[in-house]
């Protein structure tokens, strides 16, 4: 009874929150405009206006718990407008701080909502587990021919499902998480012979296999992409159960046979924020293996897995941003030094060569002084794109300012010199025009290699730097290595 009362009053609570938010927003806007029309700049007035801008957070919070989209597209822009207005009237930039503060507040509220939704998913799974257990026990008493061991197995499956959410939250590595998902699925749905996890590429509408688990003796999967069953789930955004693939009229196996010799299939979409991010699937070599109960169990696992996968993908993107230079897209110096130490150790163990290129743009300071930093940034981007195109098997980084470092694992000094010369030529041939004037862009490169020059990583950098200085000293736009 309590649950029904809560659901019936919830819409009223949202409407009340929205009405209060509108009233508060109108009142704050009215008093802000009156005060602005009479304000004379002083520290007291500035403090009062800052306090009033801080009060604008209240209608944002109230409207968020009423109607989220209305908060984002109405209340936040209005608050931003008042921040700009107050900043303009008071000739102070401090009110502008409240614009990103509003955005941060919305991000924080969204995070809290998602956290609450995850808790509700676990709660709903537990409720569904209890209902299913009750129904299963009633059937067990009615049907004398049903083995009690089957129901004990099902009870254990749903009991273990309750711990999945906490298990999935133990790692943010997509590889480890994917392996954990298919492993746990095989444990809970024991009748399957293979479990497959696919992730969707939103740009190309394709599915790629990221993890699989099978019974011993099943062999490896023939293909690494989804088949007709997976794409059916992706297109229809629905769960799928096929009791016999050879008799199901929905699928023409003659035109598009599955990657494996399967007879029974259950599959569920991984949906996060109304987008299909992948599919989770179980196969069997025998017909009629899976029931609707096992499909519901797979749906519950997919619901928990989708949020965990989305968090893992977001974490990977955040890590990528942390090791990439925001302007050029190349690796930052800190990450480059970590990779240098790794490749240095690998080179010592395997006796493979390792070559380092230290590069510096010629006359870059004069470009900045003459054309401005905007043009300088544009040139750096063009140079970085050229480096990415030409250095396909190396590790390129922005070492600092207009200086770049390129690590070439398993490349000898001779190979490094050839690569450096091709890079120098490509940059010299760049046509960068500004106001109908072609800007000549050249680069100087110093080359050092292991084991020819040294066996020490820091010494390798020092030697490459010295040869870069030599290239600069002897006329620029050249490559210098060991003579």
- SSE pattern, N- to C-terminal: HHHHHHHHEEHEEEHHEHHEEHEEEHE
Q: What does the largest sheet look like? A: 5 strands, antiparallel
CATH fold descriptor of the largest domain: Beta-Lactamase
Count of domains: 3
Jot down its keywords.
single chain, Alpha-Beta Plaits, disordered N terminus, 5-stranded mixed β-sheet, 15 helices, Beta-Lactamase, 483 residues, alpha+beta, flat, 3 domains, 16% strand, 5-stranded antiparallel β-sheet, 57% helix
In short:
This protein has helices at 2-38, 43-55, 57-64, 68-90, 98-142, 148-161, 164-168, 174-188, 228-236, 292-322, 333-350, 364-371, 373-390, 413-428, 457-473, and strands at 194-201, 206-214, 240-242, 264-272, 275-284, 354-361, 395-400, 403-409, 432-434, 437-439, 443-450, 479-480.
Task: Provide an overview of this structure.
- The chain has 3 domains: 2-112; 163-319, GAF domain (Beta-Lactamase, 2-Layer Sandwich); 333-480, Alpha-Beta Plaits.
- It has 483 residues and is α+β, with helices and mostly antiparallel strands.
- It is flat, with a radius of gyration of 31 Å.
- It has a 5-stranded antiparallel sheet with strand order 2-1-5-4-3, with helices on both faces. A 5-stranded mixed sheet has the order 7-8-6-11-12. Strands 9-10 form a two-stranded antiparallel ribbon.
- The chain has helices spanning 2-38, 43-55, 57-64, 68-90, 98-142, 148-161, 164-168, 174-188, 228-236, 292-322, 333-350, 364-371, 373-390, 413-428, 457-473; strands at residues 194-201, 206-214, 240-242, 264-272, 275-284, 354-361, 395-400, 403-409, 432-434, 437-439, 443-450, 479-480.
């Amino acid at each position: 009874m309590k649950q029904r009362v809560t659901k019936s009053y919830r819409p009223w609570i949202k409407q009340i929150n929205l009405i209060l938010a509108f009233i508060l927003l109108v009142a704050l806007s009215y008093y802000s405009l009156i005060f602005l029309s009479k304000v004379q700049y002083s520290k007291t007035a500035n403090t009062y206006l800052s306090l009033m801008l801080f009060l604008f957070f209240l209608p944002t919070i109230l409207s968020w718990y009423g109607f989220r989209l209305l908060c984002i597209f109405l209340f936040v822009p209005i608050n931003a407008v008042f921040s700009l207005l107050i900043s303009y009237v008071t000739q102070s930039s401090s009110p502008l701080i409240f614009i990103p503060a509003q955005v941060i507040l919305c991000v924080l509220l969204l995070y809290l909502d998602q956290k609450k939704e995850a808790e509700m998913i676990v709660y709903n799974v537990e409720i569904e587990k209890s209902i299913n257990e009750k129904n299963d026990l009633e059937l067990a008493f009615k049907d004398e021919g049903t083995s009690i061991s089957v129901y004990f197995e099902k009870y254990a499956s749903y009991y273990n499902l309750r711990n999945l959410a906490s298990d999935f939250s133990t790692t943010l590595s997509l590889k480890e998480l994917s392996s954990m998902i298919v492993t746990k699925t095989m444990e809970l749905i024991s009748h399957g012979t293979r479990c497959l996890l696919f992730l969707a590429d939103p740009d190309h509408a394709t599915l790629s296999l990221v993890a699989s688990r099978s019974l011993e003796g099943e062999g490896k999967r023939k293909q690494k992409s989804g088949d007709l069953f997976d794409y059916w789930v992706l297109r229809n955004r629905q769960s799928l159960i096929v009791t016999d693939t050879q008799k199901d009229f929905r699928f023409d196996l003659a035109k598009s046979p599955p990657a494996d010799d399967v007879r029974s299939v259950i599959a569920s979409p991984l949906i996060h924020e109304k987008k299909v991010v992948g599919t989770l699937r179980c196969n069997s070599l025998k017909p009629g293996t899976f029931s609707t109960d096992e499909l519901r169990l797979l749906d519950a696992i997919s619901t928990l897995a989708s949020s965990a996968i989305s968090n893992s993908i977001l974490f990977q993107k955040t890590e990528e941003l942390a090791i990439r230079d925001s302007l050029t897209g190349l690796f930052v110096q800190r990450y480059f030094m970590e990779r240098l130490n790794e490749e240095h150790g690998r080179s010592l163990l395997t006796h493979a060569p390792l070559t380092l290129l230290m590069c510096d743009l010629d006359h870059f300071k004069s470009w900045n002084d003459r054309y401005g930093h905007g043009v300088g940034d544009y040139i750096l981007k063009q140079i970085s794109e050229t480096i990415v195109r030409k250095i396909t098997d190396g590790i390129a980084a922005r070492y600092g300012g207009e200086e770049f470092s390129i690590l070439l694992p398993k490349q000898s000094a001779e190979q490094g010199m050839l690569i450096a010369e091709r890079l120098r030529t490509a940059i010299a041939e760049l046509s960068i025009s500004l106001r109908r004037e072609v800007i000549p862009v050249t680069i100087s490169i110093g080359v050092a290699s292991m084991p020819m020059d040294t066996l020490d990583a820091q010494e390798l950098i020092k030697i490459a730097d010295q040869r870069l200085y030599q290239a600069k000293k002897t006329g620029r736009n050249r490559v210098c290595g060991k003579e």
